[in-house]
Amino acid sequence: xxxxxxxxQNKKKNLDEFKEQARLHRVLSNESRLMIxxxxxxxxxxxxxxxxxVGSDQSTVSKHLALLRSHGVVEDRREGNQVFYRxxxxxxxxxxxxxxxxIEERKG
Length: 108
Known about the structure:
Elements: H1 4-28, H2 31-40, E1 45-46, H3 47-54, H4 58-70, E2 74-79, E3 82-87, H5 91-107
Antiparallel strand pairs: 1-3, 2-3
């Protein structure tokens, strides 16, 4: 049986993990960012292509990409004056697919 101190430490660890998960969920809670992830699940894409696809101005899409990058969802590489992005966490696609399935089942 775990001591009180060990149980308290486990609870704190679990709480910290849930806080990190909540931060990641907030990153995913935007339509434009979901569109970007959906596009990048196929192949890497230039920032310009993502701007066209999302339909927002370049600075807005750049902010979305910076947020996704800072949370480890995507990574970028430079080629000349272009920046290309690729999905770094392909498991997120499974999460999004699961959410889509829940939505479809609720529509019934």
